[in-house]
Amino acid sequence: MKQKQRIILFDGVCNLCNSAVDLILKKAQDNDFKFVALQSEEGQGILKKFDLQLQIDSVLLIQNNKLFSESDAVLEICKHLKAPWSWLTAFKLIPKSWRDNLYRFVANKRYKWFGKRSSCRSF
User: Is residue 88 over pLDDT 80?
Assistant: First the structure.
């Protein structure tokens, strides 16, 4: 069996994040994503391996031992989705600071707008 090449770390209790995971599962061009909840033991181990804060509040993508976070992670994930989702990579033309500010704004409101689960999603 082929090993998963891309690891997505996500907030396992966030409804928005879980909906994004569902979308990725449906729209990925290939099936080489591995999903790990940030809150899980495995997720915490990966954060330690990359010397990141254990309470990080961002989606993360690890691809070829390179770490992507915030808007870069989202757009890099979109690159591997079927159209029209892959077209979102055009937002790379917008300065990273603007993209990350928008990302953080939504991230800070996600529980209020979309709610949260009582338990963490696992795979």
Answer: yes
pTM for the predicted model, two decimal places: 0.88
Say how far apart CA 7 and CA 5 lie, in whole Å: 7
Six-digit token string for 121 = 């999603």
Query: Distance between terminal CA atoms of the chain?
Result: 17
Amino acid 57: pLDDT: 79
- Does residue 1 lie within any of the structural domains? no
pLDDT > 90? residue 78: yes
**Residues, the chain, total?**
123
**Cα(113)–Cα(110) distance, integer angstroms:** 5
Please report, for the domain that includes residue 49, its CATH number: 3.40.30
| Residues 10-45 pLDDT 10s | 999 999 999 999 999 999 988 789 999 999 999 999
Amino acid at 88: L
Domain containing 87: what range? 6-113
Would 121 be classed as within a structural domain?
no
Whether 76 maps to a domain, the answer reads: yes
Q: Number of structural domains, the chain?
A: 1
Q: Which two three-digit tokens encode residue 97?
A: 């600071």
In a domain, 118, yes or no: no
